[in-house]
Amino acid sequence: MALSPDVVALMNKINKQYGDGTMITAGDMRMAKPFTSGSLPLDIILGGGFPANQWTEIIGFESSGKTSVVHKAIAANQQANPDFTTLWVAAEGYDKPWAEQLGVNTDQVIVHSTTAMEEAYQVMLDFANSRAVDAIVLDSYPALVADEEAEKQMDELGVALGARVTGRFFRKAGKATSRSHVVEERPVLGIIINQWREKIGAFSPQGTPKTTPGGLAKNFAFYVRLEVSRAEFLDEATPGKGKARCGQAVKFKTVKNKQHAPQKVAETHFYFDDSPSRGILAGEYDDVRDLMTWGVFYDIIRRRGRYFDFGDRTWDTKDAIIDALRAELDLRSDVATAVLDAAFRTPEAAAA
């Protein structure tokens, strides 16, 4: 059913007054695709990847893998687009060798080192407004110091100074990262890394109550809030030499998600050292394990007793299909595409 002439006339009047594209029908909106996280299970629970032109908060305790997850996302997007450029506000320093180990082309990363909160936020806003980069990352919020707090003595109170500055930032950030819904503009990925703190004096039936620095206002401004935690360590057994710790199982939980269902949980295995027995190098996810898990879940890989089918190919053992997935990049890509199609019920999946 078409819009009435009166509605169309009013829309035209508003667009003339406030600018073309101010008001359009939702059906005509141009939507930017999500940015891949570089991890199949994480992409699935996010709704296809990290949202474009919005801000994502990544939360976790120390050594849970927060920064590594972001580096892996940057590396995956660089692999898809070699010109993918990132502004990295390094409030805690930037570990170039580790970033490169994770696959990041550091020549495409602009590092701004500062702990000054107002400075960091202004630089982020300037780059977002300029449309000159594809991603903006702050690592991490707790390391920033508001100017007013920096000027105080150690024995002077500075309650909620950072929260107030952060609230002002997000009131400006929405406009800075917004893009036209009519014409194509360069989308941007915004990520802020934060940390859990114990919420003293509060109660939680699920255990120790937690909160994040920065005040409550930011929780409403983030489009996605993702928790990263370590489920367990992974060990590599060497004959005659015992076991050595080589990785960790990383658990993801979408605390908030406005582009997909919230409170979704997934897990992947990440290796910070080589695992010769699995054929995985330091800095890699176990993508094959993820493909098997989600491929079988969505019936993309069909299991018949000891046999596994994908398309017109059949393997007679689980080890055989795992070996094929590790050896054949094209097969790995085909399975991943089919899993994502099934996860989000695209027309391709419906016709399969």
Task: Summarize it.
It contains twelve helices and 14 strands. It is of the alpha/beta class and 352 residues long.
Description:
The protein has a nine-stranded mixed sheet with strand order 3-2-4-5-1-8-9-10-11, with helices on both faces. The two termini are 31 Å apart. It is an alpha/beta fold and 352 residues long. The chain has helices spanning 5-18, 40-46, 66-80, 96-101, 117-130, 147-150, 161-177, 217-221, 287-297, 318-327, 329-343, 347-351, and strands at 55-60, 86-90, 109-112, 135-139, 189-195, 197-198, 210-211, 224-238, 242-257, 265-271, 284-285, 302-304, 307-310, 313-315. The chain has twelve helices and 14 strands. It has two domains: 29-228 and 251-262, P-loop containing nucleotide triphosphate hydrolases (Rossmann fold, 3-Layer(aba) Sandwich); 287-352, Rec A Protein, domain 2 (2-Layer Sandwich).
